[in-house]
Structure formats: structure tokens, C-alpha cells
Amino acid sequence: MGLRGIGSYSLSARPEQPADGDRLFTREVVELFLELERDPKGYLTYSEKSYRLATLLGLENEWWSSNHVNDRTRVCPWVSPSFVGHAAFHRCRKIREELLAICEERGDLSPPPATEAAEPPTAA
Q1: What is the pTM (predicted TM-score) of this model?
Q2: DSSP string, 73-120
Q3: Distance between CA atoms of 101 and 23, rounded to whole angstroms?
Q4: Is the pLDDT of residue 121 over 50?
Q5: For residue 93, what pLDDT band results from cuts at 50, 70 and 90?
Q6: Span 38-55, pLDDT tens digits
Q7: Spatial CB neighbours of 53, under 8 Å, sequence gap ≥ 6
């Protein structure tokens, strides 16, 4: 007796990915991406909206490996390409760049919220 149907998880075959520049994003995807991108606290890793965006983009497996298109990290935290998260990070990063380009073309990007600058220490 196996664990079939009791929380089993399968890595299904990935659908054919479109060539660079051929990907189409729905209005819902772009709007949800922008909503998460504009959040001053940054994206919430395991929020319902983050999962909804991952689902719309076909990135559920990446989402479960802690990779998200709203993650602003520029350097892959997964050092070895043998880690599942390594490929997932680069896949999410590529789609993030495509979404940012669309938002920039639409004029929807505003600079990230400014963070409070720490006051310089005073001499005692």
C-alpha cells in the first residue's frame, strides 16, 4: 500500500515553454505582479496572492521551492546548479524581467519605496 492520495506530490512534466519574447501575460497577471511589487513590505513569500500569481504563471513548483517572480534578489542563493532551487530561481528571474519590461512599457513602474535612512551616529 503506497501513499497515493495522501499528500503525495508529483513533479509533472512541464508544458512547453514559449520562446523568448513570445510569452503572453494576461491583464490579471500584470496587475497582480504590480500589486505585489508595490507593497512597501516587499512580497510575502507564502501569501495567497503570491501563490495565485505563481499559479497563473505556471510556477507552482517554483513557488514551493521558495522562488517567486516578485523576489528582487539579483544573485542566485542556490550555489550549486544541482539544487532544484537553482533552476527555479533563474526561471522566476527571467519571467520577472519580462514582467518588469511590460510594466515599464506601460509606464506602471514607480521607483521602489524609499527606506528611512539611519541617522549618522553623533560624536560623544
Answers
A1: 0.68
A2: --S-S--STTSHHHHHHHHHHHHHHHHHHHHHHHT---PPPPPPPPPP
A3: 12
A4: no
A5: very high
A6: 886 666 667 889 999 999
A7: 29, 32, 33, 36, 68, 69, 70
